[in-house]
Write a structure and sequence with these properties.
158 residues; homodimer; globular; 2 helices; 8-stranded antiparallel barrel; 9 strands; mainly beta
């Protein structure tokens, strides 16, 4: 079990793209997403994982992750997970000793880009690069489990 | 992935106890139990498993099972699973080439005993011993995920 402390931001502009050190593509879905926990199946680079997260909204939550067979993951995504599935590329950007993970979404969430930073302690200070925009850590709409139910393309534009 | 074909019965009397070949104790809970699937954590003999079942009511459903660390399972049962947890002893009884699994419940489901037989094909014929009572395969109340929400002790006695 690990405790995650995450901060989530929108992007102010595209300047981050020049600093990308690596990228990885994810296809994932949620078996369940309820008051106490969410359960995710994720495929990346022909490997698959089952992930359980406690659903504490905010900066801290518990997480458990187990590798599962790729064939099982494909079946579970197709037959048991909520739709739409989440498809995204995660770009890694190093900035002053911190690693930013920038998720660029496709499919029903096309157009959405979100940057996350994971800290080892709630009090840890970090620098916000100029390309970081508004913080959305506490906005449930940006949680991937919610994007699998109410995707970005379905949000009202008012 | 395996397809399960199960039939579930109440017990007519206690005669089955003389034929028990082995017994095992389970402590389990549900992370989720919804329209499409249920997700169970089970501890038995100091080992733990995460199990995903499609929620088809009736005799057939898909099932996936993965071993997970015992310490994780204890944490997940304590902090993330629905309460009450399910505690039961499963007794195995061989009868005319078939194995019956007889679940004797404790805790909030004390007093409930249910017999299950698992078949390899829907058309497979099986003999019902005299100690087998009414069939409850299609009665959702007897599903373990429902016993974790509406336990036997809370059922109306009318």
């Amino acid at each position: 079990m690990a405790i995650e402390i995450e901060h989530k931001f929108l992007l102010a502009n595209d300047d981050w793209r020049q600093w990308v050190s690596s990228s990885v593509t994810y296809k994932q879905g949620y078996l369940s997403s309820q008051a106490t926990s969410s359960i995710r199946v994720r495929i990346s680079n022909d490997k698959a994982w089952l992930n359980i997260k406690s659903a504490t909204i905010g900066t801290q939550r518990h997480e458990y992750e187990y590798e599962i067979p790729l064939a099982d993951a494909n079946e579970i995504l197709d037959t048991l997970c909520n739709k739409p599935l989440i498809e995204k590329t995660r770009h890694f950007v190093n900035n002053n000793g911190n690693t930013w993970e920038i998720d660029e979404f496709y499919g029903d969430n096309q157009g959405l880009i979100v940057a996350e930073i994971e800290l080892s302690a709630t009090a840890q200070v970090f620098e916000k690069p100029d390309w970081i925009g508004a913080e959305v850590t506490h906005d449930r709409r940006y949680y991937n489990n919610n994007l699998a139910v109410q995707p970005y393309s379905a949000w009202s534009t008012d």
